[in-house]
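tokens incoming
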């Protein structure tokens, strides 16, 4: 099987925690993962160990990985100030996120500190994208389960405002892989964000080929993440989903990520860890689709999705 293979964005840069890099230098990328994460929804499974995070990055690098997009947003223990040292020590580019997650992921203290309206949230996002020694390179927000609640709509509007101010890409957590079209209606239809600047996560959890094709036709990126989670339709439906998109000519809309969200999912726990993306899935991708589409998904697409013509400070 073959799919359309396109190049990377020119005249733009990927904003990493060590500074902006040309898209062509990003390399093989885990397009959705977490080095640090703390949420009341996952008690006792916090990702808060810098040593374990470095081990994950080094393992990923040993398998040929060169970049990781960390989607942990504001208020969830992302330890942003520690990311540059981890990037230097591992040799892996790290793209950090600003933004906010679903309301359920915040304790009362974080809820009290969170700006109450979209304009306030957008100002926070823009500040984290453009100022300080460790700048975010993307915005992460979230939809709801088969719909959008008030917090989701406020967050999406804030993400759109921040995008229009900076050009930053917008990654969206889709709860259970659902409400993809609702998200695009709000971000792109109501608020004018170009679909090609939107990355929709967890689509593998709802393996609806019709929805996937409509998302690809709109121009958004489809992020298939969380491999080897037996309770989700991930690995065992992944290749069906990818084949449908590749055969329809949408290989250039696909991204892959590990989405490690718990300590037990790391290689030091019971899970395959970040390197499974390359040790486990990449050989199968090459066998099924060939070298060029695999390189498209793991290297070219992330560079294009994350590249931004950042405004001059």
């Amino acid at each position: 099987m073959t799919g359309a293979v396109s190049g990377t964005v020119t005249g733009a840069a990927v904003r990493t925690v060590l500074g902006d890099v040309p898209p062509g230098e990003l390399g093989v990328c885990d397009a959705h993962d977490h080095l640090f994460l703390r949420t009341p929804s996952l008690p006792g499974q916090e990702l808060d160990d810098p040593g374990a995070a470095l081990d994950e990055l080094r393992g990923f690098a040993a398998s040929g990985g060169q970049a990781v997009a960390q989607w942990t947003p504001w208020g969830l223990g992302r330890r942003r100030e520690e990311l540059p040292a981890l990037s230097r020590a591992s040799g892996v580019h790290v793209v950090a996120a600003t933004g906010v997650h679903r309301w359920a992921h915040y304790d009362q203290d974080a809820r009290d500190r969170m700006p109450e309206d979209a304009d306030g949230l957008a100002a926070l996002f823009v500040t984290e994208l453009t100022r300080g020694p460790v700048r975010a390179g993307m915005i992460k927000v979230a939809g709801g389960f088969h719909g959008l609640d008030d917090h989701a709509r406020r967050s999406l509007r804030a993400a759109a405002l921040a995008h229009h101010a900076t050009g930053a890409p917008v990654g969206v957590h889709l709860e259970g892989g659902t409400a993809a079209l609702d998200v695009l209606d709000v971000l792109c239809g109501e608020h004018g964000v170009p679909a090609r600047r939107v990355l929709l996560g967890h689509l593998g959890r709802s393996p609806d080929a019709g929805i996937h094709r409509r998302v690809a036709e709109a121009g958004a990126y489809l992020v298939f993440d969380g491999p080897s989670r037996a309770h989700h339709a991930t690995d065992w439906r992944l290749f069906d989903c990818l084949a449908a998109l590749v055969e329809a000519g949408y290989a250039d809309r696909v991204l892959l990520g590990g989405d490690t969200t718990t300590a037990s999912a790391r290689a030091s726990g019971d899970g395959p860890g970040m390197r499974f993306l390359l040790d486990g899935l990449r050989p199968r991708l090459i066998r099924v689709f060939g070298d060029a589409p695999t390189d498209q998904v793991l290297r070219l697409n992330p560079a294009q999705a994350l590249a931004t013509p950042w405004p001059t400070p």
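note: The longest strand covers residues 29-33.
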